[in-house]
Each structure stands twice: as C-alpha cells, then as structure tokens.
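Fill-in record for Protein ZBED8.
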Amino acid sequence: MDKRMEASYELSLLIARSGKPHSIGEQLIKPAVGVVLKTVMGKDPNPVLSSIALSNDSVARRIDEMSTDVEDKLCSELRNTYFAIQLDESTLQDSEALLLCYVRFIHDHEMVEEMFARSLQTDTKGSSIFQLLKKYFNDKNIPMENILACATDGAPAMVGRHCGFIALLKNKVPSVFAIHCMVHRQHLVVKSLSPRLHTLLQIVIKAVNKIKASAQNDRLFRQLCQENDEQFVRLLLHTEVRWLSKGNCLTRFHAIFSTVVEFLSEVDTQLSEKVNAIKHDVAYLTDIFKMLNDVNKQLQGDHMTLIKAKKVIGAFITKAALYRETLSRRDMYHFPLLAQETAISDNELLVYCNHLEKIRGDMEERFRDMLELSMPAWVINPFKCTIQDVKRELQDEMSNLHNDDEAKARFLQHEYNKFWILERENTLQYGKRQNWHSLHHTWLKEDSALSWCC
C-alpha cells in the first residue's frame, strides 16, 4: 500500500477512535501536521499534505472499509467456534432502535469480547429481535448452534415465556444457557428501599438539585466550601441510569454535610431543617451504598464467570446477615460513618436492620438460580478429583489428563480458566476435536466461562 494511502487510513482510524467529527481531518489534523513539518523539520508541508486524502467523505469511507474488514474477521471466527452473546436494545436520540450484540469467544489463548450492532426497523419485540439476529447469522453463514450462552437484561421482550427472545432462541438451540444479567439484578436489589429511606433519598436529591440547578447557588456553595476548608467543593448529581451514581452522590453529600446544611439555611430554611434531621440516615445509606457499589464493581470485568459471580453474591448475602446481627446489638464496626454519629435511636436502628434484612432476602430471591448451581469440583481443580467424580462419558478424557505431567505443570502456572483455554487450544492444534466436544465443552457449560454475567 502506498505510504500516503496508509497514512490516510491510520489518521482515519485515530479520528474514529476519538469520536470526533470526520471533518476534523482537514480542519485540524492537516494544519497541525503542516505546522510540525514546517517548524520542526523546516520542510514545505504542501507536497506531503496535498497527497493525503482527509476530507469528510474520504475519512467516512476509510472508516466504513475498516469496520467492514473487522466485521468480516469477527464473523469468520464465529463460524468455527463456540461463543456466547449478550443482547441489549437501545433507542438513539433520533428515535432509532438499535440492537447491540456482544460476543465472547476464545481466540489465541485468550477470552475475546467483540460487538456488532444492527438497526431494528419496526418494533423491539422479542420476535423482531430474534428474526434480526437470525437473518444476520444466516447472511454471514454463522451457525446458531455455535451459541453456548445468552445473557439479557430480563425485559419481557427478552425473557417472555412464549414470544420472548430467549424462548425463540431455545426453540432453535435447545441447549443454550440463558441468564439474566448479574449486574442488572444487583441494581434491582439496590433500588429496593423502605418508605423512610426512600423519602430520605428524595430529600438528598432535592438538596443537591437546589444547589446544582442554579449557577449562582453553585458558585456561592463552592466559595463556602473553600472558606470551610472542605475536601470537596462540589456536590455530585444522582443519575438513575448510572448505577453507581447513587452511592457516589451520597458519599460526597455526607463528606460536606455540615456545609450543605449551612448553605441551605440561607437559601431554603425548611429544606435545611429536613436535611439536618436525616443526618443519621444519610450516614447509614452512605455506608451501605458503598458496600453495594463495591459488589457492583466486583461483578464487572472481562473474565467474570458464574463461579466468580456466585462467590461475590454469596459472600455479600452472608455479610448482610452478619451486618444486621451486629447492628442490632449497636455494634457499628461495619458502618464507619454511622459509628461517628451519636444518640442513634432504637427506631432508627430498627429501620436499618429491616433494610439489611430486605436486601438479604431480595438477593437470595433474585439470585436463587445462580446460588443453587452445583459446580463440579473438577472444573476448578481437575487434578484433585477422582475419575469416579466425573460423568462416565468424560472419564476417558479425565484419565488422560490426570496422567499428563505437562498439563499438571500448566495448571500450576495459570488459574483454572486460563488452563482450560490452553488445553482446548492444544487439543485443537493436534486435531483431537473429540476432546474439545467432551471435556472442554463441558467445562464451558458448567463454569459458563463464555457466558456474560454482566
């Protein structure tokens, strides 16, 4: 490829990654490169820059060509390997409905995650989503039987019993493993508040909006924070679609609570009194939402599996019961901000304990299917189990694995998921396709390493 053409593609890729308008190529990049060549190199930039196509249409065409090439490579991989999908439907600003499909598969000894998107021309029903995905797979010659697992957000269009996407997918691929997104489930638990705590949260949001909605109030509040030598000078807004924002908003609000009350006493006396009256509740919610945000973050990640997610959720359920028991005895070790408060009434403690019990019960109910999953011991450590511990159809392969000293050395060097990926690649490399269909395929199904937990 000509160097000038190559430069045009490289610059177009940078523009695409930055998310800037395509016209930035001629408006900024070319002049900037010209200044560098003329100032630093002492050369006339016109001969070079005039031969590099960076017009709006040229950049758009280059980006389309590169995206098509990337999509073709992705589809060629999906034709010959098992993979998991995660679907989400979203509506853009111009009311265009968009289906986002994330895929996860194994490539070059790694778990790879990619995405493609398609427009939904009419409605967003489960049947429409299924037909769109089916048509895309047929057009790209991707067997739908290669889908091992599918994660959705639990919307009726996705999980409807008869016409939902999952029901239609299972009619086509009966063995597919379907799961409701773990992070979404955890978010639904977080939204569950008692009437008192819900009212408290609304007061906090109203106070934040009172300060942030007015440019003058925001400036005056910032000046007051500086005068009081506060660590922060701004409050954070709560945004419902940003799942961590509730905890972040409360953390910042509590950190400068006294300054907030002082400022509101000048602009809204009634609201100031309400805020001052809920200081204990704010401290408790700040503590508990920090814990819930930590759980949310632990459930995220490129290589999250059901085994890891089960550990995170199970641990928090156990902790919630422990926190409720200790808090009922006025032991606030696990609630550092609440422990700083004085004169906490028995009625307040009862509200907090009931909320913790509600969280625990709600998590047990929403995650019941995952908590009841029985994970075979050989998935985590295949060398500590006996041959009799595995299913009959896997015993021959497990016997070979137990007597493979090289495999034992690889297991000591890597975590179990990486080990199984390496073993899978080795069996494919030596043409032992049957091994991949038995032992390694069972690992993927049991551990759901390919499935999306979030």
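KEY FINDING: The chain has 23 helices and five strands.
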